[in-house]
Structure formats: structure tokens, C-alpha cells
Write a sequence for this structure.
């Protein structure tokens, strides 16, 4: 009796300039959760796309229940009951939840769509598995977590019993991750088989039965999770030992670089302010981390700080120069004796020139021009400097030389070097490119927003080291993070934001994750007069 | 009263081609292909159907069975328009060409081709194809007694089979787009082709279908315009294809809004040409060339309306981008 539902044998898939999968064999048992672990760009997504019929392998065969099958497109995969939740969701934004679920397998009656029964079935499935959705909500109006539930329901609606999850937790909040883990376990208990792509070791230890590790397109091996631990797995994945905790000396803070006073930023989602009367300082030579659960005003705060959005009140000073100063509205009584305050809003370019670097939260939207080459992206913050242009013409050789220097120094891997299109690079290497560009312009203040989101342990270690190195070089580092491990490991001072306010300030050496969690959830707050360390 | 009947009748007459062609554009753009070639498609549809009507007139079939002949002419307009539109589909889907340039090429080709063909068939210098007078639906066709009242003036002043079909096609278009499997899949291809592909919808085929339908509606629209514009086809549709694009955008790519938008455009167009004979409109007699003020009106109003509504306007997200499976 063959107990493997899916066998992928000796799969090889090549792209121009890169061999994404090299002779990989993966066997999936019935009813197991099988993790697929690897660094960014190790070939996990490619392998799953082969299984789902999006790519055709050059070599190798796929067997379902011991029989060789050919999967030419997603229809074939669907016919074999293989379903996939893609890393970037494949949902039509202007359609309703129900329309997205039935798209491709629409029930019909006399040539017309028959939504009634479909809705009944979707509601039934959602109740049975605890996947809360509103079938009539439009996708663009619902949260990322709910969008993912829609993707899962798409598979269930199609009666898929081999479920592929491509980095499903990268976009979720910790609570949503717990929920997802629970749902995955209940699927496995029902006899569905799950392939779970991730690079988060904690999650593998928590839910997976077995784990296959890929490195640079090659299969390193398959292990039983109960016989292994995080250190062994990360060694298999990266090929060397990884430090989970960044080693660093005590901070030696000097002059104040960033001074924020009473900043208030309106929200685009609701009528309240997203950031309410926030004040704090960041000094040279320290890493200050803004922690909090997603959606508590961190994004809006960073937008106001970096110039992407206009605050409604407050003042920000960088190295003594005001970059934001909002004049207070004229009082009812005539305060004509006072000089009229002027509103200052320094343009983004000038903030950058003054010494602010920004590693943005959304690397594809604000960090890179995806259809530019790597070298063009690397020079994006300084192409106007005399070193890179003359009379308005870009000096191509100088740009190439500079790009090659950064690529080497920061170990940015890509298919074709400086001329690779940024779009074709893996997420981790896209992030490395941004980090290289922003740190190499030698800023006084480095604003890093979730710099390790979606990255593997090797890349995380690397970026954390860069942040600490910047601090040790006397830079002020302002880090915004949702990951408590990162908050505790990297920062010298922690500010917790809850509903747009800073509710507490902590020393990572003294505080605990549990205490931070209470403040992040709004269960506790320090008095208005914060203790200053 | 008769002037009011005239205005209403003419408004409907000019609204029909705008409505049909804008609906055609909607199908194409909802599938993800920008169809700037509507002008050319109209010309080809009008050219072929008018030649067909001439041939039927010469053979004697037309005068004997006028409405059957008209129906066949509409079928000819739809098919030739659709075949012509397939060139655009081929360029933009198979060759992944820039859709705007492909459409412009077709627009340049169509009137030249129309003139060459007209000359070839009718002899050098004969650039107009006369439309037989039997093509109109009159009281006689329906066996109704002729009366001098408002309704008959409104209905029979210029009544063609295309009007009936336009109403019919409008209803079908709205139902197909929103109530059928085909419509759902078509819209998904214009919004997020990768998503459609991942659930097994053939994006290429849907885009071909969208462009094909737009060719059919555009071809019929070409015939409807020629009927509205006068007694002959003169190798042009006077920019109505582009006007229909504006109607489609103004109508926010939605059938009902497009209906309203085409009525709006047609009303202002007719208002400008009837401005001289409407007593209550100011005449601006002390301004030189004052007749142009009313001729400008439809375009000025359009600009104002587009400025006011542009914030809500939402084009299909993936339109104009050739679909490539390999792209992330």
C-alpha cells in the first residue's frame, strides 16, 4: 500500500540565468502537514507552482496516488484536487467574496449564474471550519486576514484535499497566525494533506509533521519535525549556524537627532486621528523601536515622519532643523500680538538630503521601481549627485560600478547582476537592495519599518547586524516592528504604541515579552508623565 | 409640438450608435483590451453593410422584402465589424502589441480601405454609397394609419430596425455582463488576469471574446450612425467611435450608466444642431459666429461632467496590459 498522495520526483526547473529547482524530490503523505523550508529564493514557490501547473518542469515526474500525472495548468491541478493559497492573493478586488470563490467553477441554471446554492455552501463551509467571512463583502474592503480565509474557502469549495499554503503567515497578525495553525490542524485531522511553505521555524515546530529543506534550488533533505529542533533546521536551511540573537554592546547614545513633539496624524480609514499627540526623541547611537499590533497608527506615523502624508498638528525636528511644523489654527480670540506661526513641510528629497533614510514597510510600492533594473534602483537616492550625472545625463559606467560595489558588499543575489529587473528578484534580495541603498547613503537617521518582514532567518540575521552596525557608527536608528522577538533583540529602547498613542516606554533588558504584550493589547498603560531613562 | 417630437426623435437616432459602440467598448475593456479601434470598426461595419444594401437594392430583393434585407444588413455589419476587430485581438493577445498603437493602426486603415473599396465597386470618384430609401420603417411598413400627432412624428420620423435591436442588445449586454458565467469570467480577466488564470479561466480566450463582441456591436453601431447621419455612407463616421469611448468612460464601464451617458451626449448634440429653431434659447446675436457656441456645448459639458465625476471613475484594473503568464 502506497501511502504517498503526491510524489514529485527529480524535478528540475530552469529560468534564464538561474536553476530554480535542481533535481528535487518531495513526497507528501496522506493527512500530514508537510513544511517546505528554505531561504528566500531557494525555489520553494517555484516547486509549488510546478505542482499547481503554473510552470512546466524541464525534468522529473509528478505522481498522484502512485500514478504518473501531467499537470499542464491549474485546471489539471484542480481536477486532481490540488488547491493553492498563493503568497500574493489571487483575488479580484472589485468582486464580492462569493464571486471570487465561485469564479472558475460557477454553478449555472439555464445559462444564468446560480449564486443562491453557492452561497449556502460557502456559508456552510465557513461555519464548519470557523473561517469567518461575509459572502457579500467586496474584496478591496476587507482585511488581509479575511482575504486569506477567502482563498482557503476557494480550495474547500472545490473539494481540494491537497492544500498548498505559500507563506501564509507573512501577512497575518499573531492572533490570525494562531487561528490559521488551528485550522490547518483540523484539515489534517480530516485526512487532507497540507504543503506549507514557510521560513519561520517556530511555525514548523508548532504544526508540521515533516519538513523538507531546500537551499539554492537543491533538496537538502526531509526530516521528522519531532526528531529535530530549530538550530538543526536553520543549519540545514542556511548551511551554517545562525545566531537568533544579535550580539551587541550597550548603546552609547549621544546628541538628539530626531525630536518629535505632539504629532497628530489624521486617519484615512476612520474619522479619528491615527496618531494622537505623540512625542519622543531618538539620539545618535541608539536603536529606538516602536512596537505595537498592526494598525495602531505606526504606518501613519512613519508616513508623516518621512513625508508621505501630512500631519494635522505637531512638530518634527531632524538634527535641529524643523522638517515638519504645523501652525496651530488661529484661536477664536485675536492673538494678534503673537507672531504668526508658519507651517513647514519639508519635501521628501530634502529630508533625505538632510540625512534621513527610509526602509519602507511596503518594499514593492515605496521601496523599489519594480520594472527598473537593480542598478537603477540602487542609485535612485543619489543619481543627481555629480558622481553619477553630468549636465543631466546619467553616467552609466559610474552607476554600474557603484551597483557592483553594493551588490558585492551586501551580497544581493540576482539572476543577471546589475541589469536584473527588480521585479524578478526574490523578496529577500529586494529587501537587501533597499537596505544597501539606504544605509550606503550614510544617513544620520535610519527609519526601518518592518525591515525583516517575510525574510528568512539568514537574511534577518544579516539585516539586524546592519542595523546594529549603523548604530555603532553613531547613527540614530528608528525601528518599527510587529515581531516581538525582533523588538526585544535589536532595540535599546522600546516605545509601545496603542491606538495612536505611546502608552509605555521600556528597557528591553528589564522588561518581558508578556509585559509588552499587555501594553500592546491596551490592557495597561503608563501614566502620562513617562519615566525617562 | 412637432419641433419637440423632432428633437426627441433625432436624439434617439443619434443615441443608438453611441450606445451600441460604447457597449462594445465596454465588453472589450472589461476583458482587459483597450479598444481605441472602435472608429475603424464602425467604418468597416458601415461600409460592408451599406454595400450589401446596395447589392440587395440592385437585385430587387431589397425593395420586395425591405425589413428582411435590413436584418441581413445588420448581421453583415456585426460580422464584418467582428472580423475586423479580431485583428486587434490578434495583435494585442497573441503578439502582445501595444493596444493603443494597434488600435490607431486599424483606425488609419479603415477609412482608406473604405474609399478604395467604394471606388473599386462604384467606379473612380464615386465615394458615397447611397442608402436605399426602403430601409426606414414607416407607418406603411407596420400598416398603421398616418396621423399628424406627436407620437407618430416622434416614432416614425426616422425609425430604423437598428433602434429596435439596440434596445434588445442593451438588455442582453447588461444581463450577460452581470448575470452569467461568461460575464463574471470576462470581468475577472479585465481586473486581475492572474487570478482568473489561477482558477482555470482561459484569459486569452476571454479577451478574444471581449474584442469579438465589441466588433459586433461596433459594426452595428457603424450602420446605425450612417442611417442617422444622412442618406449615404461617405467613408467616415465623423469621430463617433471616439465619442463612444468618452461615453463609455463617462458611463464608468457600466451598461446602465452608459445608457444614460449616451442619451446625455446625444441630447446636447441635437440641441446644438437645433439651437436655431428653439425659440427660448438665447441667440447671442451680437457675438460673431455665435452658432458655434451651441456646437461647442456637448464637448464643454462633457469636460465639466468628467471633471466632476472623474474621482469616482474606475477603469478595469488590468486593461491595456498584455497578459503574460510568467510575470509575477
Amino acid at each position: 500500500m502506497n501511502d504517498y498522495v503526491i510524489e514529485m520526483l527529480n524535478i528540475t526547473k530552469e529560468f534564464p540565468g538561474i536553476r530554480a529547482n535542481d533535481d528535487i524530490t518531495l513526497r507528501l503523505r496522506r493527512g500530514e502537514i508537510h513544511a517546505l523550508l528554505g531561504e528566500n529564493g531557494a525555489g520553494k514557490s517555484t516547486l509549488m507552482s510546478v505542482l499547481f501547473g503554473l510552470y512546466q518542469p524541464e525534468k522529473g515526474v509528478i505522481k498522484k496516488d502512485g500514478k504518473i500525472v501531467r499537470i499542464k495548468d491549474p485546471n489539471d491541478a484542480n481536477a486532481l484536487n490540488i488547491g493553492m493559497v498563493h503568497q500574493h492573493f489571487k483575488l479580484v478586488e472589485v468582486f464580492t467574496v462569493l464571486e471570487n470563490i465561485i469564479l472558475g467553477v460557477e454553478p449555472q441554471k439555464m445559462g444564468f449564474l446560480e449564486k443562491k446554492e453557492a452561497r449556502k455552501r460557502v456559508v456552510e463551509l465557513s461555519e464548519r471550519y470557523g473561517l469567518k467571512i461575509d459572502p457579500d463583502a467586496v474584496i478591496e474592503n476587507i482585511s488581509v486576514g479575511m482575504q486569506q480565509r477567502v482563498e482557503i474557502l476557494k480550495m474547500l469549495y472545490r473539494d481540494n484535499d491537497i492544500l498548498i499554503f505559500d507563506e501564509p503567515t507573512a501577512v497575518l497578525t499573531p492572533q490570525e497566525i494562531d487561528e490559521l495553525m488551528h485550522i490547518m490542524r483540523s484539515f489534517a485531522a480530516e485526512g487532507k494533506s497540507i504543503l506549507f511553505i514557510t521560513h519561520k521555524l517556530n511555525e514548523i515546530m508548532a504544526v508540521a509533521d515533516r519538513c523538507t529543506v531546500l537551499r539554492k534550488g537543491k533538496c537538502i533533505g526531509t526530516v521528522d519535525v519531532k526528531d529535530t529542533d530549530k538550530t538543526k533546521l536553520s543549519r540545514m536551511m542556511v548551511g551554517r549556524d545562525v545566531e537568533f540573537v544579535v550580539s551587541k554592546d550597550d548603546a552609547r547614545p549621544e546628541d538628539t537627532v530626531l525630536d518629535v513633539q505632539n504629532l497628530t496624524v489624521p486617519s484615512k480609514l476612520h474619522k479619528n486621528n491615527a496618531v494622537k499627540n505623540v512625542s519622543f526623541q531618538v539620539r545618535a547611537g541608539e536603536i529606538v523601536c516602536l512596537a505595537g499590533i498592526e494598525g495602531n497608527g505606526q504606518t501613519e506615523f512613519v508616513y508623516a515622519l518621512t513625508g508621505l502624508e501630512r500631519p494635522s498638528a505637531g512638530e518634527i525636528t531632524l538634527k535641529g532643523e524643523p522638517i515638519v511644523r504645523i501652525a496651530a489654527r488661529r484661536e477664536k480670540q485675536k492673538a494678534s500680538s503673537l507672531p504668526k506661526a508658519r507651517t513647514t513641510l519639508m519635501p521628501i528629497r530634502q529630508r533625505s538630503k538632510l540625512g534621513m533614510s527610509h526602509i519602507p514597510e511596503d518594499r514593492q510600492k515605496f521601496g523599489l521601481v519594480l520594472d527598473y533594473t537593480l542598478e537603477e534602483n540602487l542609485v535612485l537616492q543619489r543619481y543627481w549627485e555629480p558622481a553619477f550625472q553630468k549636465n543631466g545625463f546619467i553616467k552609466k559606467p559610474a552607476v554600474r560600478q557603484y551597483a557592483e560595489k553594493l551588490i558585492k558588499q551586501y551580497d544581493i543575489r540576482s539572476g543577471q547582476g546589475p541589469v536584473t529587473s527588480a521585479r524578478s528578484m526574490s523578496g529577500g534580495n529586494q529587501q537587501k537592495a533597499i537596505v544597501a541603498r539606504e544605509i550606503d547613503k550614510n544617513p544620520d537617521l535610519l527609519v526601518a519599518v518592518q525591515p525583516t518582514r517575510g525574510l528568512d532567518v539568514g537574511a534577518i540575521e544579516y539585516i539586524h547586524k546592519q542595523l546594529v552596525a549603523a548604530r555603532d557608527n553613531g547613527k540614530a536608528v528608528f525601528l518599527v516592528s510587529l515581531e516581538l522577538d525582533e523588538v526585544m533583540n535589536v532595540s535599546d529602547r522600546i516605545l509601545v504604541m496603542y491606538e495612536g498613542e505611546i502608552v509605555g516606554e521600556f528597557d528591553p533588558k528589564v522588561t518581558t515579552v508578556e509585559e509588552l504584550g499587555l501594553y500592546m493589547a491596551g490592557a495597561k498603560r503608563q501614566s502620562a508623565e513617562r519615566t525617562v531613562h | 409640438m412637432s419641433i419637440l417630437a423632432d428633437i426627441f426623435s433625432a436624439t434617439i437616432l443619434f443615441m443608438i450608435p453611441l450606445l451600441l459602440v460604447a457597449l462594445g467598448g465596454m465588453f472589450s475593456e472589461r476583458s482587459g483590451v483597450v479598444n481605441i479601434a472602435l472608429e475603424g470598426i464602425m467604418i468597416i461595419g458601415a461600409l460592408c453593410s451599406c454595400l450589401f444594401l446596395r447589392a440587395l437594392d440592385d437585385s430587387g430583393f431589397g425593395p420586395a422584402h425591405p425589413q428582411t434585407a435590413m436584418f441581413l444588413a445588420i448581421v453583415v455589419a456585426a460580422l464584418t465589424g467582428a472580423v475586423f476587430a479580431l485583428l486587434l485581438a490578434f495583435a494585442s493577445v497573441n503578439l502582445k502589441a501595444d493596444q493603443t498603437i494597434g488600435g490607431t493602426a486599424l483606425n488609419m486603415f479603415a477609412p482608406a480601405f473604405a474609399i478604395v473599396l467604394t471606388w473599386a465597386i462604384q467606379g473612380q470618384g464615386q465615394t458615397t454609397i447611397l442608402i436605399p430609401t426602403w430601409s426606414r420603417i414607416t407607418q406603411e411598413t407596420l400598416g398603421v394609419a398616418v396621423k399628424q400627432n406627436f407620437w407618430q412624428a416622434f416614432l416614425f420620423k426616422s425609425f430604423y430596425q437598428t433602434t429596435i435591436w439596440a434596445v434588445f442588445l442593451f438588455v442582453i449586454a447588461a444581463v450577460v455582463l452581470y448575470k452569467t458565467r461568461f460575464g463574471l469570467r470576462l470581468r475577472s480577466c479585465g481586473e486581475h488576469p492572474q487570478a482568473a488564470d489561477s482558477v482555470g479561466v482561459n484569459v486569452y480566450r476571454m479577451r478574444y471574446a471581449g474584442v469579438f463582441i465589441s466588433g459586433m456591436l461596433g459594426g452595428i453601431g457603424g450602420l446605425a450612425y450612417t442611417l442617422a447621419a444622412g442618406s449615404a455612407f461617405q467613408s467616415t463616421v465623423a469621430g463617433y467611435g471616439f465619442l463612444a469611448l468618452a461615453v463609455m468612460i463617462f458611463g464608468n464601464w457600466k451598461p446602465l450608466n452608459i445608457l444614460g451617458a449616451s442619451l446625455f451626449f446625444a441630447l446636447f448634440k441635437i440641441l446644438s444642431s437645433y439651437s436655431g429653431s428653439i425659440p427660448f434659447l438665447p441667440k447671442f446675436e451680437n457675438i460673431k459666429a455665435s452658432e458655434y457656441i451651441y456646437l461647442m456645448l456637448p464637448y464643454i459639458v462633457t469636460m465639466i461632467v468628467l471633471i466632476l465625476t472623474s474621482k469616482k471613475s474606475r477603469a478595469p484594473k488590468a486593461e491595456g496590459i498584455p497578459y503574460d503568464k510568467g510575470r509575477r
